[in-house]
C-alpha cells in the first residue's frame, strides 16, 4: 500500500470541509427523506482520487452532527458514504469509460438508498410490516434524490473534469 502523503491528506481534509460546509449551508436540501445534497456530487472524486473517500467520510460525519435524525445518522449515514466511496474508487481503478462513470455514480445512490432508507424506517418505528413499507418508501425517496445529484451534477463533472488542465496538474502532483 502506498503511503498517504501530506498533499493527499490535505486534499482529503479540504474535501471534508467542503462537503460539510455545502451540506450544512443548504439544510433544506440536505436533511430529509427527499435529500438533494449538492455536496454528494463530490462523491465522484474517489473515482479519480481514491484517498478522497476518507475526506468524504469525515465531511459526512461532521455534516450529520446537525442531522434531524440524530447520532444514528452520524454513524450509518457516514458509513454509507464510506462504502460508496470505496466502491467508486475500485470502479475508477479500471479506467474511465462511460459505463464505469455511470457505475461510479450509481454507488452513492445504492448505498444511501438502502442504508438511509433503513435508518429512517427504524427511527419511524411501528410494526415490522410498517417499517418494511417505510424502508421501501424512504429508500426510494433517498435514492431518487441521490440519483438526481449524481446524474445531473456528478456524471457531467466526471466527464468534464478529466479534460480540465487544473485537474490534470492536480492528478500529476498526487501520484
Mean pLDDT: 92
> Distance between the terminal alpha carbons, to the nearest Å?
13 Å
Structural class estimated from helices and strands: mainly alpha
Q: Name the helicity range.
A: over 70%
Low-confidence stretches: none
Strand elements, count: 0
Give a verbal description of the structure.
By secondary structure, this protein is an all-alpha fold. It is built from eight helices and no strands. The longest helix has 33 residues, at 128-160. The chain starts with 5 loop residues before the first helix and ends with a helix.
Output the keywords.
175 residues; mainly alpha; 75% helix; globular
Record the SSE blueprint.
Elements: H1 6-25, H2 27-30, H3 45-48, H4 52-63, H5 71-92, H6 98-124, H7 128-160, H8 165-174
In brief:
This protein has about 180 residues and is an all-alpha fold. The chain is built from 8 helices and no strands.
